TrEMBL record:
Domain Link: 123-217, 222-314
InterPro entries given in the database record: C-type_lectin-like/link_sf, CTDL_fold, Hyaluronan_bind_Proteoglycan, Ig-like_dom, Ig-like_dom_sf, Ig-like_fold, Ig_sub, Ig_V-set
Organism lineage: Eukaryota, Metazoa, Chordata, Craniata, Vertebrata
Domain Ig-like intervals: 14-109
GO biological process: cell adhesion; central nervous system development; extracellular matrix organization involved in endocardium development; fin regeneration; glial cell differentiation; positive regulation of neuroblast proliferation; skeletal system development
Stored SMART domains: IG, IGv, LINK
Disulfide bonds: 169-190, 267-288
Gene3D superfamilies tied to this protein: Immunoglobulins (2.60.40.10), Mannose-Binding Protein A, subunit A (3.10.100.10)
GO cellular component: extracellular space; perineuronal net; synapse
Primary residence: secreted
The name this protein goes by in its record: Hyaluronan and proteoglycan link protein 1a
Keywords: Disulfide bond, Extracellular matrix, Hyaluronic acid, Immunoglobulin domain, Repeat, Secreted
Subcellular location(s) of the protein: Secreted, Extracellular space, Extracellular matrix
Protein family per UniProt: Belongs to the HAPLN family.
Length: 317
């Protein structure tokens, strides 16, 4: 059986990507039959130059060449022959052939993989509401990210952030309704040290369960800035001060994008639209996040307190 319409898959440079393949007939043998062989090949214009990617027969699996230790069978069920390629490179662009061979009814499928020149400039950030950690069901998580000028992050985006050093001990929703958290420094309170660094996985969860969320925002279209004021402000005064300046009080997504993408740095704690107080440090120094570049989180203080300034955002006209 041959699937005549190749599936096209697009991935960002450095991301993980899944190439789908499975038995086309539900009446076919499952992969539990050790006689079934799964073979993945990267197809060249000249078939003599084809590259072996992965070969699987029963419990025996082997990857080849540049794909060694970088390609894994998904095996989500007994009829799934999809593979995941990790840390996608530009050279991975091309046509892939999946063959499921049982000697009676073979299945052949082709997938076109396009690797784009880079991930969209953006940043993943963990978010929890003023009520504290583990207070968002999936629908509330989606809304929370939207309110911060962001969307719920995908696994690929979280994985890329982990590779770039994101370490967070609280589990959060992702866009596919799985729950994960990134650990670069394994330690006892954060899942232990046995598994080593990685993106820890709680898997798919009931959408009414409550966790934090990982949000993703891209480059801001406008200006994020600290509003100079003679006095410190309450939250309501901060909101009004930005309005008086022809802007709006900045959101959490704005401060993360300005910090990560633009290198914004200021050692003054300021109100944001969700009622939190934060400040962005891209140049660690004494008394200003001395150990790491980060958006520092002060908390959700009493909104009547007049001890903080404000960060504003003025959208492009």
């Amino acid at each position: 059986m041959f699937s005549s319409f190749p599936v096209k898959v697009i991935a960002g440079l450095g991301a993980n990507v899944t190439l789908p393949c499975g038995l086309l007939s539900k009446d076919s043998f499952s992969f539990g039959n050790t006689g079934i062989r799964v073979k993945w090949t990267k197809v060249a214009d000249d078939e003599a130059l084809n590259e072996d990617v992965l070969l699987s027969m029963g419990f025996h699996k082997k990857t080849y060449g540049s794909f060694e230790d970088r390609v894994f069978l998904e095996e989500k069920d007994s009829q799934d022959a999809s593979i995941t390629i990790t840390d996608v490179a530009m050279d991975d662009t091309g046509r892939y052939r999946c063959e499921i061979i049982n000697g009676m009814e073979d299945t052949v499928q082709e997938i076109l993989l396009e690797v784009q020149g880079g991930l969209i400039d953006g940043v993943v950030f963990p978010y929890s509401p003023s009520e504290g950690r583990y207070n968002l069901n999936f629908e509330e998580a989606v809304q929370a990210c939207e309110e911060q000028d962001a969307v719920v992050a995908s696994y690929d985006q979280l994985f890329e952030a982990w590779k770039n050093g994101l370490d967070w001990c609280n589990a959060g929703w992702l866009s596919d309704a799985t729950v994960k958290y990134p650990i670069t420094r394994p330690r006892a309170p954060c899942g232990g040290t046995v598994d080593g660094p990685g993106v820890r996985n709680y898997g798919y969860q009931d959408k009414q369960s409550r966790y934090d969320v990982f949000c993703y925002t891209s480059a801001i279209k406008g200006r994020f800035y600290w509003l100079s004021q003679p006095d410190r402000l309450s939250f309501d005064e901060a909101v009004q001060a930005c309005l008086d300046d022809g802007a709006e009080i900045a959101k959490v997504g704005h401060i993360y994008a300005a910090w990560k993408i633009e290198g914004y740095d200021r050692c003054d704690a300021g109100w944001l639209a969700d009622g939190s107080v934060r400040y962005p440090i891209s140049r660690p120094r004494k008394n200003c996040s001395p150990t790491e570049a980060a958006v520092r989180f002060v908390g959700f203080p009493d909104k009547m307190l007049k001890v903080y300034g404000v960060y504003c955002f003025k959208a492009e006209q």
